[in-house]
């Protein structure tokens, strides 16, 4: 498959120039030198080609051959992806570890999908059936949670000539043959797809269903629908990674693709060690049974970091086409943008903002546009939700990556340094964050949980805004000068922040809050506010309200009430109804 | 197996083409690899080391570590070694002093190497890592109780000029231990561009506590060529990796000062005309720092560990400066020193709020430290954050105008800084002492202010 297409003429870090004697194609996958380092052609200029190499180029010498594959950089799609951990160019890290030890040696190769493993294939078609592009030919139970649907190639339309019976098959064995206008195409359990090219789909659909994350501040205040795109910017130590982990653990997508792009090695280890032990609240199965990890940590080669984002999203699209809801966590897109900058700099391209290449916004747009709810070629409904974290230098959101990302996402969870310093987690700022998806998800909440959901949400958002303005006054003159009718706004917000917005990622009860519980908690807090305002009007002092035992019951409700015994919250609501009224009698 | 024929190995060239700062260009060379070690002998017969930064047909750009002063174009003899920069390592390095390139400078004979290792290291396979899991007691309350250090962690000290970061690092190196498991602890100390007396302070401090025999020292002081600093942390970490993962030792690596290292990188980048990112630092500063910091950790099935404590002084105390900023994105938390506390006479002036240990959450509490530890730490943070707010308010309206509760917070804040944060340079507090002290201080506040601790904990510890 590989043939010599040229010889290296210059090496400078991850970029290698070669003199090409033969045909070279833009974005063609190549191997360089005796170590067979994997690379991709990123520029053609006469006989001179520039190659971006995905491995360390130390000791590479001018004159060594470059082998062309004739194909673009591609990933393998088939059963066995779930539960695996790959690097940025889909090399299976577990396999590499067993072959070459604790460190990633140069030039190691391993196939992404295990060639010897047998999968239990069940046909879903028979000879003579009509096959549309992307149709489900058969199924394979990939994990106890995920039924892997074997899809026909997207460029084939015809009839099944032959198909094997229910049997154990490896990924390479041909399970069916499809004839398309006389041309016969063999289909095996796996196929290849170029990473930089989005997989085709039928139509994009309207977003309508929220991605339930169990994180109160997200679900209630800044929701994201399945198929939406979110940016999570935050300086270091503000908790981006924890937010990403929480979503990966608890959101109600069918499949999670977690891309650790240029981040810490120990964080990936944390995911690797903790996910198999964690149990999905819905399926009661291990979280690893629905997770694919892409780990290209910060010390791994920079070019592979650039590719990792595309590798991850391509795997996600494959499962979307089977009709699954996939959530892609990209942590962090800034590291990816920096990889772009580094490579662009080495190619001596003229820089735009802060050294980033001028095509940064285009690349960001391409990536985020691969999110969405689609009707696949075979008519199945599936979605990709993208949650991309951003690490702005100095925590300054005016930098290019944050600014350009904002153009392509409609939901923005801004992490706040002051909140993080006060250990208010998740440190999602209620002032700077927004969700443009409220209208899309509102009908779902209205129909399934509470007809007044939108009004409740807007009421608390309004109180938070008022509190922000009052805090400015307090900062100047102290809280004592405010009348009780205003102090109660502060008080309600204090309670709301402590009970509702703050959520521990490590407390067993608190880490996931069912939407039913979220609505109830919100209503109790708003009821408390309403009752207190009425009480203050009739002469009760704020001091007295503060001392009431109900206040501490409300403060403790998030930890005291489990998702399963929601009735306790109804009791609390009922006693709230009675209690403050009693107090109001002078 | 047939032996590989290397026709040009150890080939030597005379004369170079162009010199600029620490770089030179040599033409008409053959078969030179990228990142290859180069030996240069100048007219006076002095040997200097360098590495290739760029290679092309017939041409190579070499970065030279000894400085290019006195180099002429015609005379130098340049030898390409055919290997990358390597460091001989051995357990016998303990107790020895080396220069920034790993050559002994303590006047003692060369040691017998057990292994020759590439200083660039290799990335640890993420699946081979083990999650850091042992609490290290440093004897410093604000670290142990609130920013717990864990074996295998990389926790930098962000400081400013004139703040006592060196004293703190030395104290940590002296006192750090794992309760009930103290075998095979050693320190690898790398000084980059610091003054001679700072390095001497560390050495004296190690000597005084009798651990000098367990310290490997790499010195590239302020008067050494700045480019040498690029190799110094790599040499130190290569030595640390050998001691940790092949000799099963627990290594604490102290790197000071990372700011100087980054400046050396910037110097090279500017000379090469690279497009800068922020403040003239190269776009790959993040990747480069990561290639150092990520060499900390634990490996499954191996006994040793590398814990890193890089020190960096923030220019103008600015935490958003690229060096601390990018460091913070890679390391697992940071210990931030605060000028205001230091001026109040508080040692160690560890800033309460911006300091953070990311690995703390998984390594404290039930079965690890003490059951009440997580909630206590969280509550101390929350209360101290409130103190900061109250102080800001008091500045505007005066302390007398504050509500009674806020005055309690001021009292708590003062006690927290004077008793909890503050401790002696030789004071080694056990974790129990630190936590009990925390409870004593929280008892200054009314019970119903303490939302983050459970009722049980209140009845067990509050006011006791």
Explain what the structure shows.
With 586 residues, chain A is of the alpha+beta class. Chain A has four domains: 3-73, Elongation Factor Tu (Ef-tu), domain 3 (Beta Barrel); 119-190, OB fold (Dihydrolipoamide Acetyltransferase, E2P) (Beta Barrel); 205-438, Rossmann fold; 453-584, Bovine Mitochondrial F1-atpase, Atp Synthase Beta Chain, Chain D, domain 3 (Bovine Mitochondrial F1-ATPase, ATP Synthase Beta Chain, Chain D, domain3). Chain A is built from 16 helices and 26 strands. In chain A, helix 7 crosses helix 8, helix 11 packs across helix 13 and helix 13 (515-537) packs antiparallel against helix 15 (549-560). In chain A, 53% of the residues are buried. The model of chain A has no long low-confidence stretch (mean pLDDT 91). Chain B folds into three domains: 2-80, Elongation Factor Tu (Ef-tu), domain 3 (Beta Barrel); 86-362, 3-Layer(aba) Sandwich (Rossmann fold); 373-461, no CATH class. Helix content of chain B is 31%, strand content 21%. The relative contact order of chain B is 0.12. In chain B, the strands form five sheets. An eight-stranded mixed β-sheet of chain B has the order 9-16-15-17-19-14-20-21, sandwiched between helices. Chain B is elongated. The longest helix of chain B has 25 residues, at 373-397. Chain B has twelve helices and 21 strands. Chain B has 464 residues and is α/β, with parallel strands linked by helices. Chains A and B meet through strand 1, helix 1, helix 4, helix 6 and helix 11 of A and strand 5, strand 11, helix 6, helix 7 and helix 9 of B.
């Amino acid at each position: 498959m590989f043939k010599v297409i040229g010889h290296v003429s210059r090496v400078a870090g991850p970029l290698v120039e070669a003199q090409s004697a033969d045909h070279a194609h833009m974005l063609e996958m190549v191997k360089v030198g005796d170590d067979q380092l994997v690379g991709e052609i990123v520029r053609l200029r006469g006989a001179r080609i520039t190659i971006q190499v995905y491995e360390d180029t130390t000791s590479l010498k001018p004159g060594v051959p470059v082998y062309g594959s004739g194909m673009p950089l591609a990933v393998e799609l088939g059963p066995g992806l779930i539960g695996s951990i790959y690097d940025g160019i889909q090399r299976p890290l577990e396999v590499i570890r067993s072959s070459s030890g604790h460190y990633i040696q140069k030039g190691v190769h391993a196939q992404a999908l295990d060639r010897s493993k047998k999968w239990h294939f069940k046909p879903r078609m028979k000879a003579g059936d009509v096959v549309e592009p992307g149709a489900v030919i058969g199924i394979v139970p990939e994990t106890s949670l995920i039924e892997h649907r074997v899809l026909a190639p997207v460029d084939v339309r015809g009839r099944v000539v032959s198909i094997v019976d229910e049997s154990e098959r490896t990924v390479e064995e041909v399970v069916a043959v499809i004839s398309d206008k006389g041309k016969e195409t063999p289909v095996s359990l796996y196929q290849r797809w170029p990473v930089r090219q989005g997989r085709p789909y039928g139509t994009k659909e309207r977003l309508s269903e929220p991605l339930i994350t169990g994180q109160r501040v997200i679900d209630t205040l800044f929701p994201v629908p399945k198929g939406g795109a979110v940016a999570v910017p935050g300086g270091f130590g503000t908790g981006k990674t924890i937010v990403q982990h929480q979503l990966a653990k608890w959101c109600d997508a069918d499949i999670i693709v977690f891309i650790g792009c240029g981040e810490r090695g120990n964080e990936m280890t944390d995911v690797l060690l903790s996910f198999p032990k964690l149990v999905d609240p819905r399926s009661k199965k291990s979280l690893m049974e629905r997770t694919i990890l892409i780990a290209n940590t910060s010390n791994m080669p920079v070019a592979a970091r650039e590719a990792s984002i595309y590798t991850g999203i391509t795997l996600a699209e494959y499962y979307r086409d089977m009709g699954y809801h996939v959530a892609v966590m990209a942590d962090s897109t800034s590291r990816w943008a920096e990889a772009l900058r580094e490579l662009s700099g080495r190619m001596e391209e003229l820089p735009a903002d802060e050294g980033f290449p001028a095509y940064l916004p285009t690349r960001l747009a391409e990536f985020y546009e691969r999110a969405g709810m689609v009707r696949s070629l075979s008519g199945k409904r599936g979605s990709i939700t993208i949650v991309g974290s951003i690490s702005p230098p100095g925590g300054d959101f005016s930098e290019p990556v944050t600014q350009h990302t904002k153009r392509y996402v409609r939901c923005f969870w801004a992490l706040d340094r002051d909140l993080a310093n006060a250990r208010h987690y998740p440190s999602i700022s209620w002032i700077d964050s927004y969700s443009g998806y409220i209208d899309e998800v509102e009908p779902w909440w209205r129909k399934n949980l509470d007809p007044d959901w939108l009004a409740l949400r807007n009421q608390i958002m309004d109180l938070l805004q008022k509190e922000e303005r009052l805090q400015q006054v307090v900062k100047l003159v102290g809280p004592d000068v405010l009348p009780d009718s205003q102090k109660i706004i502060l008080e309600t917000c204090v309670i709301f922040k402590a009970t509702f917005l703050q959520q521990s990622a490590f407390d067993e009860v608190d880490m996931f809050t069912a939407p039913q519980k979220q609505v109830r908690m919100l209503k109790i807090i708003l009821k408390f506010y309403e009752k207190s305002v009425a009480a203050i009007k009739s002469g009760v002092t704020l001091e007295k309200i503060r001392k009431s035992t109900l206040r501490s019951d409300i403060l403790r409700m998030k930890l005291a009430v489990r998702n399963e015994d929601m009735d306790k919250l109804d009791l609390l609501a009922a006693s709230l109804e009675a209690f403050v009224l009693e107090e109001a009698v002078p | 197996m047939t032996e590989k024929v290397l026709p040009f190995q150890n080939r030597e060239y005379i004369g170079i083409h162009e010199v600029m700062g620490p770089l030179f260009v040599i033409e008409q060379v053959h078969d030179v690899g990228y990142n290859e070690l180069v030996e240069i002998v100048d007219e006076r017969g002095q040997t200097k080391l360098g590495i290739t930064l760029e290679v092309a047909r017939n041409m190579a750009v070499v970065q030279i570590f000894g400085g290019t002063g006195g180099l002429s174009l015609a005379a130098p003899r340049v030898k390409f070694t055919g290997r990358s920069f390597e460091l001989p390592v051995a357990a016998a390095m303990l107790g020895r002093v080396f220069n920034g390139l790993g050559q002994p400078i303590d006047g003692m004979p060369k040691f017998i190497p057990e292994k020759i290792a590439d200083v660039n290291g290799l990335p640890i396979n993420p699946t081979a890592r083990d999650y850091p899991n042992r609490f290290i007691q440093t004897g410093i309350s604000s670290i142990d109780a609130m920013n717990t250090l864990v074996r295998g962690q990389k926790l930098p000290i962000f400081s400013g000029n004139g703040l006592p970061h060196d004293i703190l690092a030395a104290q940590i190196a002296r006192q750090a231990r794992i309760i009930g498991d103290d075998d095979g602890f050693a320190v690898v100390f790398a000084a980059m561009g610091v003054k001679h007396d700072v390095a001497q302070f560390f050495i004296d401090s190690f000597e005084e506590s009798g651990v000098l025999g367990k310290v490997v020292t790499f010195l590239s002081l302020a008067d050494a060529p700045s480019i040498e600093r690029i190799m110094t942390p790599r040499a130190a970490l290569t030595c640390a990796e050998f001691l940790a993962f092949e000799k099963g030792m627990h290594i604490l690596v102290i790197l000071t000062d990372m700011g100087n290292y980054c400046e050396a990188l910037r110097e090279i980048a500017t000379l090469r005309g690279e497009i800068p990112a922020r403040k003239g630092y190269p776009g790959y500063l993040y990747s480069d720092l990561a290639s150092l910091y990520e060499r900390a950790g634990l490996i499954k099935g191996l006994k040793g560990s590398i814990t890193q404590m890089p020190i960096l002084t923030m220019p103008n105390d600015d935490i958003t400066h690229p060096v601390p900023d990018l460091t913070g994105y890679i390391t697992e938390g940071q210990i931030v020193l605060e000028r205001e506390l230091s001026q109040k006479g508080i040692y160690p002036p560890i800033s309460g709020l911006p300091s953070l240990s990311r690995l703390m959450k998984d390594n404290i509490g039930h079965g690890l430290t003490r059951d009440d530890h997580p909630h206590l730490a969280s509550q101390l943070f929350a209360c101290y954050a409130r103190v900061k707010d109250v102080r800001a308010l008091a500045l505007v309206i005066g302390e007398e105008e504050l509500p009674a509760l806020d005055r309690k917070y001021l009292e708590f804040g003062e006690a927290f800084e004077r008793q909890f944060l503050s401790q002696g340079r030789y004071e080694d507090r056990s974790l129990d002492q630190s936590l009990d002290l925390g409870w004593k201080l929280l008892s200054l506040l009314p019970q119903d202010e303490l939302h983050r601790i459970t009722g049980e904990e209140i009845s067990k510890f509050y006011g006791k």
